[in-house]
Amino acid sequence: MEEPDKDSRPGTRMRILLRQLCPAPGPAALTTIPTSAQVAAVNPTRFRYTLDNNLLTPDQRQFYDENGYVVIKNLVSDEDIERFRDEFMKICKKEVEVPPGLIIMRDVAIAKSEFVPDQKAVTKLQDFQEVGELFRYCTLPQILKYVECFTGPNIMAMHTMLINKPPDSGKKSSRHPMHQDLHYFPFRPADCIVCAWTAMERIDRSNGCLVVLPGTHKSSLKQHDYPNWEGGVNKMYHGVRDYNENLPRVHLVMERGDTVFFHPLLIHGSGMNRTQGFRKAISCHYASADCHYIDVKGTSQENIENEVIEIARRKYGVEAAISLKDVWKLRARLVEGERTNL
């Protein structure tokens, strides 16, 4: 009689299942994640926030698990960055037709001043999914191969921004309050969402680099509102109402082309731009196409839903009842794999 495969015995299968559901206590050692051609280690490292596709190293995966972000140096070429910069300037100067979905945001401190058709008053281009040259950023192969480490192979580009932090007017309005990006998103699960944020020039504390609170991605979504800032707050710049301000902060100094990938629950913001130049970055939030939409009514996100719907009604003249998820369905674009759900 043929000996049954030892891994098929009920007791062995149960032990394997229990190990998967109840990992051993204590920090796991960093080991190489086995492929189908390798023999599994006795206690392989278990990472919650990344997937195994042999791109991120075990050290990078461990860092993301603990901190909620990881920086990849020199990921986007100078040539691509110049093309994005040129397209941004053309939009500011009205040299190209602006698609209806694009939102051009202006700094609250200078938006009502005499308009000059250049980048002076423009702080952000949001929802550039219909601007082909800018949306090309979201489809760059070197970006997507890292995104797949967080979302899997079916990838949706959900939220696009080119940020142009202007020299501060003296009212500190160039700051961005500490916030969690998930506050704006009516789709879940959070662990299948990631932001790619690329510096378009050297970014440091002088021109308002990103500030992150490492490890806060492990907490829940917090209440967000407009901060009570004397110099005013830009539209939709909501901030976390209550968090531990004594938590360690990291200022992400980045060179042109460096890209940070971070979790949507990571608390982050940026400081003032104290230079005379404009600090530019381009970003996209991606989600697994297997994610699902949620209803945010009655939750802490209801205030942002009301604000987004108000803007959508004014911009598109919509009179029918719409929800936050309806707006996001319009923004979403498949960039890799299959559109399975979102």
UniProtKB/TrEMBL annotation:
Names of required cofactors: ATP; Fe cation; L-ascorbate
Enzyme Commission code: 1.14.11.18
Coiled coil: none
Claim: Iron is one of the keywords in the record: yes
GO cellular component entries: 9+0 non-motile cilium; peroxisome
Reactions the enzyme catalyzes: dodecanoyl-CoA + 2-oxoglutarate + O2 = 2-hydroxydodecanoyl-CoA + succinate + CO2; octanoyl-CoA + 2-oxoglutarate + O2 = 2-hydroxyoctanoyl-CoA + succinate + CO2; octadecanoyl-CoA + 2-oxoglutarate + O2 = 2-hydroxyoctadecanoyl-CoA + succinate + CO2; hexadecanoyl-CoA + 2-oxoglutarate + O2 = 2-hydroxyhexadecanoyl-CoA + succinate + CO2
Pathway linked to the protein: Lipid metabolism; fatty acid metabolism
Record keywords: Dioxygenase, Iron, Metal-binding, Oxidoreductase, Vitamin C
GO biological process, one term: fatty acid alpha-oxidation
Listed InterPro entries: PhyH, Phytyl_CoA_dOase-like
GO molecular function: ferrous iron binding; L-ascorbic acid binding; phytanoyl-CoA dioxygenase activity
Matching PANTHER family: PHYTANOYL-COA ALPHA-HYDROXYLASE, PHYTANOYL-COA DIOXYGENASE, PEROXISOMAL
Family from the record: Belongs to the PhyH family.
Entry protein name: Phytanoyl-CoA dioxygenase, peroxisomal
Organism the protein comes from: Sphenodon punctatus (Tuatara)
This protein's encoding gene: PHYH
